[in-house]
Amino acid sequence: MVVKLGKEEVEKVAELARLDLIEFEKDIFGGQLNTILDYFDKLKEIEISEVEPTSHVSVQRNVFREDQAVSAFSKNDLLQNSPDSKKGCFRVPKIIE
Predict the structure, then answer these.
(1) Cβ proximity of 5 and 34 under 8 Å
(2) For residue 87, what are the contacts with CB-CB under 8 A and spacing of at least 6?
(3) Can you list the domains of the chain with their CATH numbers?
(4) What are the DSSP calls for 46-82, one per residue?
(5) Phi-psi category of 72—alpha, beta or left, where left has phi over 0 and alpha has psi -120 to 50?
(6) How does residue 19 score in pLDDT terms, banded at 50, 70 and 90?
């Protein structure tokens, strides 16, 4: 079933897209929209009853490594870079406005 868009439908689509088209553009875009609708009709003719539904065009698999907890730095190593520390914690200036 081929549905051809008329001038009124093209004007409505342009209004929804907030486009201000001149008459010449309405004719051009109307033809382009009808061409797109013709392609949809061609797609309806394809036999897909034996095609398995997919959510992605390629096979998806997890490519990430497993999470493993590792100790990167010791607490003392980190505190050595601190300008000020006390009782194993970073000290920062008190800021109150």
Answers:
(1) yes
(2) none
(3) 7-44 (1.10.20)
(4) S--TTSPP-SSSS-----SPPP-----S-HHHHHHT-
(5) alpha
(6) very high
